[in-house]
Design goal:
Blueprint lengths: L18 H14 L19 H23 L17 H52 L6 H8 L18 H6 L1 H14 L1
Helix pairs in contact: 2-3
Amino acid sequence: MGSLFRSEEMTLCQLFLQSEAAYACVSELGELGLVQFRDLNPDVNAFQRKFVNEVRRCDEMERKLRYLEKEIRRDGIPMLEIPGECPEAPQPREMIDLEATFEKLENELREVNQNAEALKRNYLELTELKHILRKTQVFFDEHEGGVNTTESMTRALISDDPNKHMGHVQLGYRDKQESLEFLPWLVVYKVNFSVAG
């Protein structure tokens, strides 16, 4: 009785293939799934082997595919999955087209991600400037209405509750010099808003 961990009966064969037909023949044998290849040059360094450049290209294409798959899954886009089936190995001329397509898709996706980050940054900056303009508008509108303390003016510009609607606060100065002295508060407010945001 045979062991579960022992393979079926196998025959050792030796094939001599031309370089031009080697890729197609090995691909067909690999599709069958009945062949185990032996390394006849175990002492040769991996970087000195004949097809190391092709293996590197395949590794690079696999990395690009993993990146594309990660981005697709992150955005929740449904993908077509064929369970239990493995596509056939492409021909060498098809590999060149696939490599160019993967390179183009990766570059486009990276550019889209960079543009999305830039748009988000611009949106946050514009939102910050919108809040500053609203606060300064309240400040200048209430400045024309009357006189009140510096504490009321500070509350008009810097509120603890950003969602709270600011009521009308009567602001005023004895002369224009005091209004210029209050301008540094605007700068401090903008810096605090940037740090808090």
